[in-house]
Amino acid sequence: MSRPQSKLPDAFNAACADMPPARRNAENPEYGSTYADHTSVHEAVTPSLKKHGIGFSQTVRETNGTYWAVTVFRLGSERLEFANVICSDPKQGPHRFESASTQAHRICLARACGLAIGVDDDGNRAAGKGRAQATRQPADQNPKASAIATELMRKGKAIDNAPDLRDFLAANPVLNDDHQALKSVKQMLERHLRELEKKAFAA
Predict the structure, then answer these.
(1) pTM
(2) pLDDT, tens digit, for every residue of 56-112?
């Protein structure tokens, strides 16, 4: 007896094709850019998903001390699951963890649906930076960007497997900013990723 054909993948692809771009409704004063916040991403994806009969939910899951933002899409009894690492944990304080969770859920939902959303301010708050009050400095003279680069380098080099490092890079789009320190960190972490991939392949 043949198994019934899965309907969710085709419905999900059709829903994603129908989605409008996410509205960039918020500003990141740290980098002088705009981005689509979590609410805007929800507003962009929900009508199309409903049109194709797909529901979704988001939650936090912990695995061996690592916290993940999980998005689950459902159609009948079928489900598709996507996850994005949360670059924080509850020990760092509820507000910081909530900001990191919001950022990860936003990125997870947008990546799953193929939306471009920009660099958000939750990443700054999750890193304990808060909202910038002073006039933005040129990228290469911004000490806060240098401090963020140092912190991301420390966290990224501590990751010892390729899947988690790929998720870490995806969860920190600030590494694409036009700042030399951030560019250097991205290059070094990409080399670290290639080394981890080689080790995994050789194992």
Answers:
(1) 0.58
(2) 999 999 988 899 999 999 999 999 999 988 988 888 888 888 988 998 999 999 989
Q: Are 67 and 89 in contact, with CB atoms under 8 Å apart? A: yes
Q: Which helix (H) or strand (E) holds 142?
A: none
4 exposed, middle or buried (CB, 10 Å; 0-12, 13-18, 19+)? exposed
Residue type, 61: R
Asked whether 91 and 108 are in contact (CB, 8 A), the reply is no
- Find, among 22, 56, 15, the residue nearest to 40 by Cα: 22
Q: What angle do helix axes 143-157 and 162-170 make, rounded to 10 degrees? A: 160
For the chain, what is the largest distance between any 2 Cα atoms, rounded to a whole number of angstroms?
68
Please name every residue paired with 57 in a beta bridge, in sequence order, or none if there are none.
Answer: 72
